[in-house]
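Technical note accompanying the year-one report. For the benefit of new consortium partners, we illustrate the data format agreed upon in the data management plan: each record pairs a sequence with a structure-token string. No post-processing was applied to the example shown here.
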Amino acid sequence: MVTQQFEQRTRELIDSLKAICAAYGLGNDGNEFKIITQVFLFKFLNDKFSYQAKKIRPDLANADSWEAAIAALSVDDLDMLQMQMGPDTARLKPEHFISHLFSRQNAPEFAKLFDDTLRDIAITNNDIFAVKTDGGAKITLFDRVSEFITDTSKRDAFCRAIINKLGDFSFERIFNEKYDFYAALFEYLIKDYNKDSGGKYAEYYTPHAVAKIMAAILIPESVRGKISNVSCYDPSAGSGTLLMNIAHAIGEQRCSIYSQDISQKSSSLLRLNLILNNLVHSIPHIIQGNTMLHPYHREGMSIKKFDFIVSNPPFKMDFSDFRNELDTKEHQERFFAGVPNIPKQAVDKMAIYQLFLQHIIYSLKPGGKAAVVVPTGFITAQSGIDKGIRQHLVDNKMLAGVVSMPSNIFATTGTNVSILFIDASNTGDVVLIDASNLGTKVKDGKNQKTLLSTDEEDRIIATFNAKQAVEDFSVVVAYADIAAKNYSLSAGQYFEVKIEYSDLTPTQFAEKLNGFSERLNDLFNESAVLEQEIKKQLAGLRYE
């Protein structure tokens, strides 16, 4: 009950920040999401600092004002307090506290004070919280928020409105709650900012069901708590839904997260997700850049190999401006099945997922595992790069299986999708599941979406992990069987063909045969009448 009430209060805070943005002309503005997420993060870091400080020094919790008590500490005592907090907590000074800004809100040039405070927090914590680009530049934690307001005369009032919303409640009571709370909170926080905006590199929020299935199959219950010191990678990370799910399955302190995404917005959202989910130690591995052209993570000169890889890559987009740079000897080993050609028309339909898929296979450690969302057409294509990738997986015995999902599992795209599971250590049989008939269809705005129930999700996971054959749902096949069917990974092509037999008496058989004969005669008669009618119409046309 406390968690539900707290979650409601937090959502109200997010909504009130959106209302402030709307009141100052930034509703649905391209910069609104930056303001909302950065102000929210400012409060979160303040409250986490407070929580950690009071945990380390109970005397602060008993003080009339913990902020005043910290401000009264000596420089050495404050340094010691911050050292005891560990790397996940931002290093804050007394002048960084929300209460300090609240008390100064009537000062001249308050907007400048507000922005300077955020910037100083960012600079002080740059080594921990900055995201790098593939060129080595650092994207700091905070922008100058007030500068998104074009009318300079309104900036002070805008920042005052924000600071007055941040002191109503504290996150402190919730820091010991389960991470499920933060997953739901994060999804609500970014729900209006993580949609396809029609840009070149559009982001899609991966549905919870897909993320859950991927994590539960890669990290079954039987091995949870037994895995440690592993690397998890997503070459098209977006806001990090898939990475968060696999990190929770392994244990946040048992793994390191690596990612790359061309979108600066996605990289900033991923950073926020890591901070909310106790994964600050992985922020230095979050890279903003073009994974295909400039893969950042390396070991020496070679591309780094990972224990686990998850990805929901973009399926089709125009990458013609750098396509030929990829089709060179330098990248030949990575793109072993080839680089898609540039079509003469519909250039934006270039199959970029084929590049991501090959990059993922190339980036796996020996014995590594991966789960990748692919268009369902990939699993049955009869030729080309798709078939070449499937053949590579089968011939090299590195395929765990496929789950074909229901249509419209993504509300933002009508493309049917499947989840491809790669296991570089699987020398046994392969599991193919057809889950296309599961789920309930619901309206999601203008779109239709299919929702899986918890029982349906669990059925998919249990069937896959048990390598269980279920009639009209799943098959377990050998690599040789797959090769014999032109490397098709569609479960339906391996289901047994069922022929129903009925015992008939001679009289019943004669009646059925007579019925077929009569129906056939009727069809011939209808055909003859139609033929005469057509001849009449043609004769009339000739006469005219």
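Partners are asked to follow this layout when depositing records. The chain has three domains: 2-177, 195-494, 502-544.
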